[in-house]
Amino acid sequence: MQTALRTGTKAAWIGLCVFASTAVGTAAGSAEGGWVAAGSSRARLNWCPPADRATAGKASQAFLELSLDPGWKTYWRMPGDAGVAPSFDWAEAINIGTATVEYPAPHRMADQGGEAVGYKTAVVFPITLQARDTTAASTVVVTFSYGICKNICVPAELKLTGDCHGPSPAHQAALDAVPRSGRKVRPGDPKLVAVTGSVMSVPPRLMVDVDFGKDADSTDLFIEAPEGLFVPLPAPARPDGNGRVRYVVDLAKTIDAKDLLGKQLRLTMVGSKGAAEALWVAK
After folding, report:
1. Is 24 exposed, middle or buried, given 0-12, 13-18 or 19+ CB atoms closer than 10 A?
2. Which of 282, 189, 198, 232 is nearest to 12 (CA)?
3. Coarse DSSP helix, strand, coil percentages of the chain, rounded to the nearest 5 percent
4. What is the pLDDT of residue 119?
5. How far is residue 95 from each of residues 22, 56, 140, 141, 209, measured CA to CA in Å?
6. Contact 151, 110 (CB under 8 A)
7. Per-residue model confidence (pLDDT) at position 226
């Protein structure tokens, strides 16, 4: 999955965090249970190869499991006001045609530079793998780069080799936590009601109304733009008591809101009952 980093992400990361030395780990198979440590975190790539030729042509499911020491956090693909999005490099994998990484719904978290978006304690990334040649064996290797933060922020990099450790309840929980769209939407998932306002107005501002369901709590909204453009984190403005929440997006905080005109924005809506995605073309 391609991830667009917002302009200035690395500068914000450097300016807002006190760096410790970079943590690096390698050779997943040599660590107990496949876990490789890097600083205050550890990870493993849980992948079971196809059992026979009948299943070799089908996509296989892997899970990159990341565990953090208490008090540490890591970042989503859109890290918020500061931080670095995770990246996945499959260059050393053998006979892997595509690798699609999915992200469980994130949380908004306080950070040194404002508000960050990501995960605390642990996260599991589901990954769908497709072999290039279904008649040949595959070796799954990924270089996983990510940031973790507590009182200090540490960039980490791990080389992980897929190893089969069997299913885990955390795997299904991660799949269930991935925001859904289209036909995959389930009852209870949030629904986009309306987007009003304009990137061309003075000041540029959007109002986004989301229906989370009457009994939902812990509701939130995140907006991503393509081509490295940055959309500020929406501010909840007006719940109506029936599960609908209005969010206000102050686009005056961007470098030039007019750059968003005509761009397709991805809206990720996260509530206690589920998570969903919707697309909206900026006007």
Report:
1. middle
2. 232
3. 15, 45, 40
4. 97
5. 30, 12, 8, 10, 45
6. no
7. 95
What pLDDT score was predicted for residue 20?
Answer: 42
Amino acid code (one letter) for 91? A
**Sole residue written with tokens 């933060």:** 149
Name residues of the chain where pLDDT drops below 70: 1-32, 52-57
- Going through the chain in order, the beta strands assigned E by DSSP cover 23-25, 36-38, 41-47, 60-68, 73-80, 87-89, 96-101, 107-111, 114-120, 122-131, 141-149, 153-161, 191-198, 205-211, 220-224, 235-239, 244-250, 264-271, 274-281
Cross-strand pairs, 282: none
Q: Which residues contact 252 (CB under 8 A, 6 or more apart)?
A: 203, 204, 205
- Residue 196 CA, chain-centre distance (Å), reads 26
Q: How far apart are CA 221 and CA 199, in angstroms?
A: 18
Residues 76, 47: Cα–Cα separation, whole Å: 22
CA separation for the pair 13, 184 (Å, rounded): 35
- From CA 155, how far away is CA 145, in angstroms rounded? 7
Q: What is the pLDDT of residue 4?
A: 30
Structure tokens at 278: 């919707």
pLDDT score of 275: 97
Q: What is the pLDDT of residues 168-215, one digit of tens each?
A: 999 999 999 999 999 999 999 999 999 999 999 999 999 999 999 988
Token pair for 59: 């996509």
Single pTM value for the model: 0.88
Closest CA to 144 of 202, 86, 213: 86
